[in-house]
Amino acid sequence: MSQPILQVRNLCIDFVLEDRTIEAVKDASFELAAGETLAIVGESGSGKSVTALALTRLLPVPPAEIKQGEILFDGESVMTMDAARLRKLRGGKIAYIFQEPSTSLNPVYTVRNQIGEAIRLHRRDVTDVDAEIVRWLDAVGILDPAARMHDYPHQLSGGMQQRVMIAMALACQPDVLVADEPTTALDVTIQAQIMELLGSLKERFGMAVILITHNFGIVSGFASRVLVMYRGHIVEQGPTEEILRNPRHAYTRALIDCIPQLGSKAKRLKTIDHAAIEAA
């Protein structure tokens, strides 16, 4: 069996504040194979995004502090990388898509400026940057990309902005794409389009994907494996279909029960009873 492209071992992350210390991630361990799709599922505050940002040491220090653990990318320790090596890792090897494209894109620069900067930083081999920008905008389904690359973010819809963010991430040709709640700010129809786009691009370019979400409803059919986080702990992980069919942890069952069911006559969606989960 080949070595995983990403390995996280016994990761513990605290946020040290003036009056208290918050244990954000507690003894988390998991692996990601090349070309695999892993979903990290949990409510806000469960430690999902903190774990994802730690993969490239993007957490602000202070207040964040990685107390213990090891992160290996392609066999190399991320924890001991110097600043130059980290710059190559961020974007070039592990790229991110965040949930609010309107705040991730710089409002005073055109799409061309922003994607072009990423290409120039991480792909020195590209001689025609504009042609490469057009190629990636076309790959993510933006019509008339040669014209739209001159637009500013405010001239684009939310769905178009997210497609630009995906193009920017993929233009660096990363080995791992981290999609952190990529559909949260979008309406339901556009959510489905973005998830379908991510799935097709993953298959086309063979990259590994980490999907971070609170919604089990978008995991089935996209991720091959699921990791469930609850209050900083990984409480369950395994193949997606197995987790959905036979969830073992009370929190996993509660998350699955929150998925709206077509044809259900319930007057309201179920909520998560944290007291019952703690008692289980």
Describe the structure.
- By secondary structure, the protein is α/β, with parallel strands linked by helices.
- The protein contains eleven helices and ten strands.
- Strands 6-7-8-3-9-10 form a six-stranded mixed beta sheet, sandwiched between helices.
- Helix 4 (111-122) runs parallel beside helix 7 (158-171) and helix 5 (129-139) packs across helix 7 (158-171).
- The radius of gyration is 19 Å and the shape is globular.
Search tags:
alpha/beta, four-stranded antiparallel sheet, single chain, six-stranded mixed sheet, 11 helices, 280 residues
Fold blueprint:
Layout lengths: L5 E11 L4 E12 L4 E5 L6 H7 L9 E10 L2 E2 L5 H7 L4 E4 L3 H4 L6 H12 L6 H11 L5 H4 L9 H14 L4 E5 L7 H18 L2 E6 L11 E6 L2 E7 H6 L4 H8 L16 H6 L1
Parallel strand pairs: 3-8, 3-9, 6-7, 7-8
Antiparallel strand pairs: 1-2, 1-4, 4-5, 9-10
Helix pairs in contact: 4-5, 4-7, 5-7, 7-8
Question: How many E-type strands?
Answer: 10
Q: What's the end-to-end separation, in Å?
A: 37 Å
Q: Specify the helix fraction band.
A: 25-40%
**Unreliable parts:** none
Global outline: globular
Count of discrete alpha- or pi-helical segments spanning 4 or more residues: 11
Largest sheet data: 6 strands, mixed
In short:
The protein is an alpha/beta fold and 280 residues long. The protein has 11 helices and 10 strands.
